[in-house]
Design brief:
Elements (H helix, E strand, L loop, with lengths): L4 E7 L4 H24 L4 H17 L3 E8 L2 E8 L3 E9 L3 E6 L14 E4 L10 E7 L2 E7 L3 H10 L4 E2 L3
Parallel strand pairs: 5-9, 6-8
Antiparallel strand pairs: 1-2, 2-3, 3-4, 5-7, 7-8
Helix pairs in contact: 1-2
């Protein structure tokens, strides 16, 4: 069998919490501008520019996508912020997975407990392809939530058929 290489992009959905953070950022910027106007009028224009740009920058950082790159059993996940800044957040071999099942799979819920770290690289919505995988990474038991497409699931199933429980 030849090399397997699959990519997938998942956009994180905005939540009410994200909306509240945006409102708080805007209110903080307005507060900084008002305080500058009241107490240090000489720097008012500078405060408007800095507070405005800072608020814009922070709000844009809430625009998040995850890219899954599956290559011959290795899963790399990159976090893309505002379609411009990319950071590798995880590299793991799927052979290291102890178990992988749909997040709502009640038959394997007991195997999805007792983890020390929870990583969510999903859109934030539970879909038919929202899976959780448990594995050891950097001496910690990790539970990872992600949304692999059918091609990535096939590649993972090819390597760990007894550890991957596909949604029926």
């Amino acid at each position: 069998m030849g090399d397997i290489f699959k990519e997938q992009l998942v956009t994180k959905k905005r939540t009410p919490k994200d909306g509240m953070i945006t409102v708080l950022i805007i209110l903080a910027a307005i507060l900084v501008i008002a305080l500058a106007f009241l107490f240090i009028p000489q720097v008012f224009l500078f405060a408007v520019i800095i507070a405005g740009y800072g608020a814009y920058w922070l709000i844009q950082r809430q625009n998040i996508e995850y890219e899954y790159i599956y290559t011959n059993g290795d899963l790399d996940i990159d976090k893309i912020i505002n379609k411009s800044k990319r950071k590798r957040v995880l590299s793991v071999s799927v052979k290291d997975f102890d178990v992988m099942a749909h997040v709502e799979d009640k038959n394997h819920a007991h195997e999805m407990t007792g983890f020390e770290k929870n990583l969510d690289f999903s859109s934030g919505e539970i879909k038919s392809n929202t899976y959780a995988a448990v594995f050891n990474h950097n001496n910690q038991k990790v539970k990872m939530i992600f949304e692999p497409n059918e091609e990535i699931l096939k590649g993972i199933f090819h390597l760990i058929p007894r550890k991957l429980y596909l949604k029926k």
